[in-house]
Specification:
The complex is a heterotrimer of chains A (about 350), B (about 300) and C (about 250).
Chain A (H helix, E strand, L loop, with lengths): L2 H21 L4 H23 L8 H19 L4 H6 L10 H30 L4 H21 L9 E2 L7 H27 L2 H11 L1 H6 L4 H27 L1 E2 L1 H4 L2 H15 L6 H20 L3 H15 L3 H9 L13 H4 L4
Antiparallel strand pairs in A: 1-2
Chain B lengths: L1 H12 L3 H30 L6 H17 L4 H27 L4 H23 L12 E4 L4 E4 H23 L1 H11 L1 H6 L4 H26 L7 H15 L4 H21 L7 H19 L7
Antiparallel strand pairs in B: 1-2
Chain C lengths: L2 E12 L2 E12 L3 E5 L6 H9 L6 E6 L2 E2 L5 H7 L1 E3 L12 H6 L19 H13 L14 H14 L4 E5 L7 H16 L4 E5 L3 H7 L2 E6 L2 E6 L1 H5 L2 H7 L4
Parallel strand pairs in C: 3-8, 3-9, 6-7, 7-8
Antiparallel strand pairs in C: 1-2, 1-4, 4-5, 9-10
Classes of the chains: A mainly alpha (about 350), B mainly alpha (about 300), C alpha/beta (about 250).
């Protein structure tokens, strides 16, 4: 096992996480978004890599969480109510005290997470009878439907969006504060998943991925596991959505449901790093984020084209991702036992 | 409530408007049918679920736009676009699709989704994000005291769609290539044993699909509007149609396509145009749910 | 001994093909029952009907007194009826121990195991059973890399791990090296006698099934041809004719 390496990795990441924004204050928000990507990729992988249910619509929970939090934050302390606030289209700027703002924010984030979780349970009732491409497309349909329906609801600002309550504090504090939130949430998610994958739960979802019919035939209650997996992903996506909304300061359909961009990036990141591994999504997110930031500086508008190309090249030519490739080359590093007498055929392990 | 007013308008005060809505539904439905048939073709023959289908359509539309601004006459536009998209499809197959043929099905979805993103962004860069259309400047025909207006361009589009569909069907049934495609779809290994070059068949099928989408795109640019990011809605529609009708079922595809067209137009009429994108998506979800229920009765799941 | 499975006049047709016509069998609890018949006579279809893979056209199937013909595979498995597959299905990307561990019973009483650690008692039992089938030395290998015969043994061990009441085995000796078959028969007997699992076995190997089963059903062309003790069927002319190509 890679015990020592693990400690080094965590130590390095912790150092980077803590000192990164101190050493490079201009990049604080950028690194915050990095942790956001790590979280998105890691939670996508629960269903996508570990369970074999490739969702193209996890972004639905991101957007739902964003809006739920906005509603909570506004209605908690603004007496006029949500509808009045949104119809004013930003002209109403309520003065919240510090404690009001933060309590509203924290409550908003929690409600966002729980709300998204409940939504995932509702979706589960009609989504998990679908397999493979149907599940993927159906989930994409969910995301599109959510985005389109939000525009029609004036209560949440319709097409004009919602201005989020103003952060009480200067810019540097604001960036640092949201940075800390993102980092903590990403770390929480990671360690939760780390524990989860080490239990029977991890085995169960892998079994569903390897042969769902066999799992069913062995009595594994697959629906329960699917609901838990998606629920966890939804919860964290909702929370990070709430945080993202506050970071943006203004939310509308494009900010909440960036389907052709972040909705797919989370998948691309996991593929890049390696599906179905604990670290694959993390590494993939880091690499992807770095590429994205650098291409923005140098390619500007061509950035999206470049990212699309990377996605395609990754899928077509480098499917197993970095971790997958490493696992085939150095299986011992990962605790995979190779039968000496059949070494040649083993090196093509899946 | 606006919705109630619209309902009353449709069914009580001026039922003649139904004719307009139905015709609109048929006009767009014909275009949907072309794209859906192409999707079913690629899916059935190569087991590739092409999420970029809609973007192929939009690309055809933009090509038509470009040609039209160069004053190329419509029939020639159609031919040029069909040929261009055919070659384009073949190229995409050679570069990309060929390598993902044996992979698990999600790979094909994600790869084509990546292609979709790429195409969207490129079209956005080249043509800009505004909504565009081709104004054919053809006469409108009015009926029933101007309650029903039919632009002749839409009728022409319907006619062209029918011609194209007929051509494809005849091709698939009678030509050697068409037979080779059907044989490969049924059993690729047997086809290979019989000397059919399955790689060429796959390339041809994908290119044919691309050409079909391109043709559909030309029609769309005439009768409706195009925009770089509208592709996903066409993809969603095509998937809904194919899921509802099943893969080998051409009459089913046509019926489902018209069905979706009608549904969308009615929803737009009754509830409002803001829901026009939500409509095909909700149909997709409804179709998926319905399929689940019917498969559950057979103790199965939807795969 | 009561009947643990009762199949009553079950029929199943695929399109125009009548795979099962009015089949009735009963499996006594704790016994080993055999199902034989020439290729294509409907044995696997019958199994599939029993475990819930497809709906039946008519008839009833009872498990432990409960009607199961309208239940899904998962529910039936959780009631305690498992089956192995002719083509041998295992979780090919996981190693053998993991395959075993996830095969624990998921019946109502044992739900607490959802988040159980993978190091504890479950793992011990898994390794013990792997030893029982002779796969202990291969326990850390990826199961997809095992040979076909080894995978079959793994599938069998996984079924035992689940502690089912009834195990339906679809051609358990097919593809196994003849020298290892005796060992498999031994283990099947042990599973039946020591673990108390009722066995229902489809078999083509006459030597195996005659040595294994207490009661045998013979199908032919989708219909029940004959049933009885092994000695009785061995001398039944109808059974001999069915295998030798008579109608």
């Amino acid at each position: 096992m890679i015990k020592k390496n693990t400690l080094i990795t965590y130590g390095g990441l912790a150092l980077f996480g803590v000192f990164g924004p101190i050493l490079f204050p201009d990049y604080t928000l950028s690194i915050a978004y990095l942790w956001m990507m790590v979280l998105m990729a890691s939670t996508w992988d629960i269903l996508g890599g570990q369970m074999g249910y490739n969702s193209l619509g996890n972004i639905t929970f991101f957007g739902a969480g964003m809006y739920i939090s906005a509603i909570v934050q506004v209605t908690m302390f603004y007496d006029g109510g949500m509808a009045e606030y949104t119809s004013a289209m930003g002209s109403i700027k309520p003065e919240f005290t510090d404690s009001e703002y933060f309590s509203g924010l924290y409550l908003g984030i929690i409600c966002a997470g729980i709300g998204a979780l409940l939504l995932s349970l509702i979706f589960s009732t009609f989504m998990f009878g679908l397999r493979g491409p149907y599940f993927a497309i159906g989930s994409l349909g969910l995301a599109i439907a959510a985005a389109e329906l939000t525009i029609t609801m004036d209560y949440v600002g319709g097409a004009s969006g919602i201005s989020m309550p103003l952060f009480p504090g200067e810019i540097e504090f604001r960036s640092t504060f949201f940075y800390i939130l993102c980092f903590i949430l990403a770390a929480l998610a990671h360690f939760l998943l780390r524990w989860l994958y080490s239990t029977q739960f991890g085995l169960a979802i892998n079994a569903i991925r390897d042969d769902e019919d066999k799992a069913e035939a062995m009595g594994i209650p697959t629906l329960v596991y699917k609901q838990i997996g998606w629920g966890i992903a939804a919860f964290f996506m909702g929370c990070i959505g709430a945080i993202a909304g506050n970071m943006a300061g203004f939310i509308d359909k494009e900010v909440a449901y960036p389907i052709p961009t972040f909705g797919i990036f989370m998948v691309a990141m996991v593929l890049l790093g390696g599906k179905g591994t604990l670290w694959g999504p993390v590494i993939g997110a880091i690499i992807f984020h770095v590429i994205k930031e650098t291409t923005w500086t140098y390619l500007l508008n061509l950035q999206w084209v470049a990212l699309g190309l990377i996605l395609i090249i990754n899928i077509v030519y480098f499917q197993q991702g970095l971790m997958g490739w490493l696992q085939t080359k150095y299986p011992e590093m990962f605790g995979i036992v190779v039968d000496e007498s059949q070494k040649t055929s083993k090196s093509e392990a899946k | 409530m606006v919705m109630l007013d619209n309902l009353q308008l449709l069914f009580v005060w001026a039922p003649i408007i139904n004719v307009q809505v139905i015709l609109e539904g048929i006009f767009v439905g014909a275009v949907f049918a072309l794209s859906a048939y192409g999707l079913a073709l690629v899916w059935g023959v190569m087991n590739i679920k092409n999420l970029a289908q809609g973007d192929f359509v939009i690309m055809g539309g933009y090509l038509a736009l470009a040609l039209s601004s160069a004053n190329v006459p419509l029939p020639l536009i159609l031919i040029i676009v069909i040929v261009f998209m055919f070659v384009y499809g073949w190229g995409i197959y050679a570069l990309m699709i060929r390598r993902i043929l044996d992979q698990d099905m999600f790979v094909s979805l994600l790869a084509t989704f990546g292609l979709s993103l790429l195409m969207q962004q490129v079209m956005n860069l080249v043509f800009g994000p505004e909504v565009q259309t081709i104004d054919m400047e053809l006469p409108n025909w009015d009926f029933f005291d101007n309650m029903v207006t039919i632009p002749s361009s839409k009728v022409i589009s319907l006619g062209l769609a029918a011609v194209i569909a007929l051509a494809v069907v005849i091709f698939m049934k009678k030509s050697r290539a068409g037979q080779a495609i059907r044989a490969t779809a049924q059993d690729p290994r047997a086809a290979r044993v019989l000397g059919i070059d399955t790689d060429k068949v796959y390339a041809f099928t994908f290119a044919l699909n691309s050409a079909l989408c391109g043709a559909a795109g030309v029609l769309v640019s005439i009768i409706w509007v195009i925009q770089p990011f509208y592709g996903i809605t066409y993809s969603v529609r095509s998937f809904a149609i194919v899921t509802a009708a099943g893969l080998g079922n051409l009459p089913g595809v046509i019926t489902a396509a018209f069905g979706i067209g009608l549904f969308e137009k009615y929803v737009g009429m009754i509830i409002g145009t803001a829901y026009e994108v939500a409509a095909p998506v909700s149909i997709l979800l409804m179709v998926l749910i319905w399929r689940q229920i019917s498969m559950k009765r057979n103790r199965q799941v939807v795969r | 001994m009561s009947d643990i499975i009762t199949v009553d006049n079950v029929s199943k047709a695929y399109g125009g093909v009548k795979a099962n016509v009015d089949i009735s069998i009963s499996v006594k609890e704790g016994s080993i029952t055999g199902i034989i018949g020439p290729n294509g006579c409907g044995k696997t279809t019958l199994f599939n009907s029993i475990v819930g893979y497809h709906p039946i056209d008519s008839g009833s199937i009872k498990f432990d007194g409960q009607e199961i013909s309208n239940l899904v595979v998962g529910d039936i498995a959780r009631l305690g009826m498992l089956r192995t597959f002719q083509q041998t299905r295992i979780y090919s990307k996981m190693d053998c121990v993991d395959n075993m561990q996830i095969s624990v019973s998921h019946r109502k009483g044992s739900r607490s195991g959802l988040f159980a650690s993978r190091r504890g008692e479950i793992r011990e039992r898994a390794e013990h059973l792997l030893e029982f089938v002779g796969l202990y030395s291969k326990r850390n290998l990826i199961s997809g890399d095992l040979s076909f015969g080894q995978q079959k043994l793994l599938e069998f061990a996984m079924a035992l791990m689940n502690q089912p009441k009834v195990l339906l085995l679809d051609e358990p000796t097919a593809g196994i090296n003849p020298t290892l078959i005796n060992g498999l028969i031994d283990r099947l007997h042990k599973a039946n006698q020591e673990l108390g699992i009722t066995l229902c076995v489809i078999e083509h190997n006459m030597r195996v099934i005659m040595n294994l089963a207490e009661h045998i059903y013979c199908l032919s062309n989708g219909k029940m041809l004959a049933d009885g003790k092994p000695e009785e069927l061995q001398s039944d002319q109808r059974v001999i004719d069915a295998y030798l190509g008579g109608h």
